From TrEMBL, chain A:
GO molecular function, one term: calcium ion binding
Domain EF-hand per the UniProt entry, residue ranges: 14-49, 92-127
The gene coding this protein: EFCAB2
Gene3D superfamilies listed in its UniProt record: EF-hand
Keyword Lipid metabolism: no
Transmembrane segments: none
Family matches, as PANTHER family: DYNEIN REGULATORY COMPLEX PROTEIN 8
Lineage, highest ranks first: Eukaryota, Metazoa, Chordata, Craniata, Vertebrata
UniProt cross-references to SMART domains, sorted A to Z: EFh (SM00054)
Protein name, UniProt field: EF-hand calcium binding domain 2
Gene Ontology cellular component annotations, sorted alphabetically: sperm principal piece
Automatic annotation (TrEMBL), chain B:
Family indicated by similarity: Belongs to the PPP phosphatase family.
Gene: PPEF1
InterPro entries in the cross-refs: Calcineurin-like_PHP (IPR004843), EF-hand-dom_pair (IPR011992), EF_Hand_1_Ca_BS (IPR018247), EF_hand_dom (IPR002048), Metallo-depent_PP-like (IPR029052), PPP_dom (IPR013235), PPP_phosphatase (IPR051134), Ser/Thr-Pase_EF-hand_contain (IPR012008)
GO molecular function, one term: protein serine/threonine phosphatase activity
Biological process annotations from GO: detection of stimulus involved in sensory perception
Catalytic activity: O-phospho-L-threonyl-[protein] + H2O = L-threonyl-[protein] + phosphate; O-phospho-L-seryl-[protein] + H2O = L-seryl-[protein] + phosphate
Lineage: Eukaryota, Metazoa, Chordata, Craniata, Vertebrata
Identification of the protein by name: Serine/threonine-protein phosphatase with EF-hands
Keyword Magnesium annotated: yes
Top EC class, one word: hydrolase
Cofactor list: Mn(2+); Mg(2+)
Species this chain originates from: Callithrix jacchus
UniProt keyword annotation of Cell division present: no
Enzyme nomenclature, EC number: 3.1.3.16
Length: 162, 652
């Protein structure tokens, strides 16, 4: 029993250090706060993938009563630790991602046209901003065919991340 | 049938909605992780840069130590004493007039008194990669100095709706950035005034060209082109950060003369600019003791270098406490304390005031603390800003000194603006540059830019990778230079001699030995191999990378030490080598090494050093070509072409 608590404590201590490390990188003024707009990046850099809606709710949880535009570390740490412990917001597995593209590719061509991709990403779900759309297009679209071969694209992304 | 189709349609659209959400979610995660990696890379660059600057203080200590003790070992005065007293005789105009410009010279020829035609001429010539003849370099520096001497410590400037002023930050020898600024914002003129807020030189490849353009523009428009001194307008900093090297390389015959002129030139640069009586523009920042009234009065030309604080010239070496400590000590909080004030130096409290202006950084934490990152100046909080601004009836401080990803940053509730004009400072795509346009009654307007070649067509991933790889490479070289100490620390923790450590213990060793506060856990996968259980194979960092040993007999500890301190050794060497010949005598080398060793507490025995000294004196004429020797110490990356020292900015 004691062993297990010890191990759990070490795990928590390790999570704390990891979270602190990621937080500090964005703490430009070294005063234990980060701009609220960076919270999404920090959470995702720790391996979690909340949706925009989930992110919104998280921020509401860790913001001050009167929002200052900044998030304090003392509020961020316990919430983030719990997320890591509960393994919430797990990243999307490769095969699920592939399936998602296939669903949108109703004609089963193996690719989506640039216009189709733009339409889906900017008009549905949690729409992309122009910047996000441009960035995705720059890497995804084959300029000759003006389309995205999503299978190749996913493979390339996976290599990028590793 | 109708119902069926519509419910299928709804179901289909729900499925496709889920698919879209999945893709968006996944892409946002990917993008965020790239952004985080880029931030980590920048943090590495920042930490290494400031750690280097902190080393400067060590060097400062060392110089004083050497000055005190050197005369024990050698009877006659050496160049170092000359450096310390550094009272340059007034150079006569005749000095460079004698320097003939040969007919064969193809570069730009300036016509004094200068006009805007000369500015254009210089810009075109530098775009064509030409080098300005030493005659003109010296003439420009002398003429500029003549004018600067008549100027007060703070230039007062007024704006109007038809005459906005543009403030630019650090350029650090980036000629392309200066071209881009002039292209976007126009050349300096009577209706287009500029302030350049220090750090024109060092690190970049075109420091002299940047300086020449700024000086020539100043000579043509002395009331509309304002130059503030930065912490790199300092001949000691130039020794380490590349400008000295650039001059000696481009001006093989007259480089020394140019360097000597620069030493005095820097001291005449104004300390700051005040715009519309309400905006203070200085290079670094302020401290809680900043006294503008005092700073208006100091004899700024007595501020030679941050590494030469005021000291008493004590002929006898008795540590007589009545006269105070000779030289310099590090006080309790790491601030430089100095004593004594000979007539050619600033009194201590004035010297500190100037250091604060040139070296301080704003931070979010309230109060004023010694700037332990850089080793000079302080960290000042928003309360300090308010206090000083109120005291002197000012509204805002514009400063530079720190690289910002977006080229500028606003803090302290809008009262402090950092403006940094060297884009891609650490690496391709590490950051944007910016400038700010001011006009009384209007809000400041910021303009950003980034010098890119083909990189604008690179994907986000490619750009992040470039910055990240560069940062990791430099970090790994740091690790190599402390290999022996690191392995010692790892093995100490690794009781079972398994070759593996938990990540936390590895991180602890890395931080304590390297002295860098970095997110080691997040960086670990880039630096070392991690097994399935999450344990670090600590020796794996040292594979595929080694320091090339120029001499077989040298043991690894010596090699690492020489590699680690190569920048410092180079500075000391350059200080001894007053005629900039690249050679010092064997005796000077041995003495230098002995002092260095005792001061830095390095455990290398004399026989090793003697062996190296003898080997370096290849032609047996009693002198050592130190630059050649240092060039031999570069790090070999197994799977890359060898990287020469000149290639890394931070290593210059």
């Amino acid at each position: 029993m004691a062993d297990e608590t010890d191990r759990e404590e070490t795990v928590v201590a390790e999570f704390h250090k990891k979270i602190k490390g990621a937080f500090e990188v964005f703490d430009h003024e070294s005063n234990n706060t980060v701009d609220v707009r960076e919270i999404g990046t920090i959470i995702r850099s720790l391996g979690c993938c909340p949706s925009e809606g989930e992110l919104h709710d998280l921020i509401a949880e860790i913001e001050e009563e009167e929002p200052t535009g900044y998030i304090r570390f003392e509020k961020f740490l316990p919430v983030m630790t719990e997320i890591l412990l509960e393994r919430r917001y797990r990243p999307i597995p490769e095969d699920v991602l592939l399936r998602a593209f296939e669903v949108l590719d109703t004609a089963n061509r193996g690719f989506l046209t640039k216009d189709e991709l733009i339409k889906y990403m900017t008009e549905e779900g949690e729409p992309f901003s122009q910047e996000e759309m441009e960035e995705m297009l720059s890497a995804a679209i084959d300029p000759e065919s003006n389309s995205i071969n999503y299978k190749d694209y996913i493979s390339m992304m996976v290599i990028d991340e590793n | 049938m109708g119902c069926n189709t519509s419910s299928t349609r709804i179901k289909n659209s729900q499925i496709s909605l889920r698919a879209v959400l999945i893709i968006q979610n996944w892409y946002r995660g990917y993008r965020a992780r790239l952004k985080a990696r880029r931030h980590f890379a920048l943090t590495i660059f920042h930490s290494l840069e400031y750690a280097d600057e902190q080393d400067q203080i060590q060097l400062c200590n060392f110089f004083s130590f050497m000055l005190e003790n050197y005369t024990h070992i050698r009877k006659e005065e050496i160049g170092l004493n000359q450096l310390a007293d550094s009272k340059l005789d007034m150079r006569d105009k005749q000095d460079y007039v004698d320097l003939d410009v040969p007919d064969s010279y193809q570069g730009p020829r300036l016509q004094f008194p200068l006009t805007c035609a000369d500015i254009d001429l210089l810009l075109e010539a530098f775009k064509g990669k030409q080098i300005l003849h030493a005659h003109y370099v010296l003439e420009v520096l002398f003429e500029t100095m003549k004018l600067l001497k008549q100027m007060p410590n703070f230039t007062q400037v007024q704006t109007s709706p038809s005459k906005e002023i543009t403030v630019c930050g650090d350029l650090h020898g980036n000629l392309d950035d200066l071209f881009l600024i002039f292209y976007k914002n126009g050349l300096p003129s009577g209706s287009n005034p500029y302030v350049f807020n220090g750090d024109f030189v060092d690190r970049g490849r075109n420091s002299i060209e940047v300086l020449m353009i700024l000086c020539v523009s100043f000579l043509v428009y002395p009331n509309d082109l304002h130059l503030n001194r930065g912490n790199h307008e300092d001949y000691m900093m130039n020794l380490r950060y590349g400008f000295t090297k650039e001059i000696l390389h481009k001006y093989k015959i007259h480089g020394k003369k140019i360097l000597q002129t620069l030493e005095e030139f820097y001291t005449w640069l104004p300390i700051g600019t005040i715009i519309d009586n309400e905006i203070l523009v200085v290079h670094g920042g302020i401290s809680e003791t900043t006294d503008l009234n005092l700073l208006h009065r100091v004899e700024r030309n007595k501020m030679k270098s941050v590494l030469m604080p005021p000291r008493e010239i004590n002929k006898d070496h008795s540590s007589d406490s009545k006269h105070g400590n000779v030289g310099v000590t590090i006080g309790a909080h790491g601030r430089i304390k100095a004593s004594g004030c000979p007539s050619e130096h600033l009194p201590k409290h004035e010297w500190e005031q100037v250091i604060d202006i040139l070296w301080s950084d704003p931070r979010g934490k309230k109060g004023c603390f010694p700037n332990t990152g850089r080793g000079g100046g302080c960290y000042f909080g928003p309360d300090i800003t308010s206090k000083i601004l109120n005291k002197f009836q000012l509204k805002m401080i514009i400063r530079s000194h720190e690289c910002k990803p977006e080229g500028y940053e606003i803090c302290h509730g809008g009262k402090v603006v950092t403006i940094f004009s060297a884009s891609n400072y650490y690496e391709e795509d590490s950051n944007r540059g910016a400038y700010v346009k001011l006009c009384s009654g209007k809000n400041p307007l910021f303009f950003q830019y980034q010098v890119t070649d083909a990189t604008c067509f690179h994907t986000l991933h490619q750009r992040v990778s470039t910055v990240e790889n560069s940062a990791i490479k430099i970090l790994r070289e740091r690790m190599i230079s402390r290999k022996t100490d690191l392995i010692c620390a790892f093995q100490h923790q690794d009781r079972r001699k398994s070759g593996k450590l938990p990540v936390s213990q590895w991180a602890f060793c890395m931080e304590s030995i390297l002295g860098l506060n970095l997110p080691w856990r997040s960086l670990s996968s880039n630096l070392v191999i991690i097994d399935q259980n999450g344990n670090v194979e600590y020796m794996s960092s040292f594979q595929n990378i080694q320091i090339e040993k120029p001499i077989q007999e040298a043991n690894s500890a010596l090699v690492e030490t020489l590699y680690r301190y190569r920048s410092d050794l180079e500075i000391i060497f350059n200080a001894i080598d007053t005629d900039h010949s690249g050679l010092i005598s064997m005796e000077e080398f041995r003495t230098m090494w002995k002092l260095f060793r005792s001061h830095y507490n390095v455990h290398i025995d004399d026989s090793q050093v003697n062996k190296i000294a003898n080997i370096m004196d290849l032609n047996r004429d009693g002198s050592i070509d130190f630059t050649e020797f240092l060039k031999a110490f570069y790090v070999v990356h197994k799977y890359e072409t060898t990287m020469k020292p000149e290639d890394t900015n931070l290593d210059t």
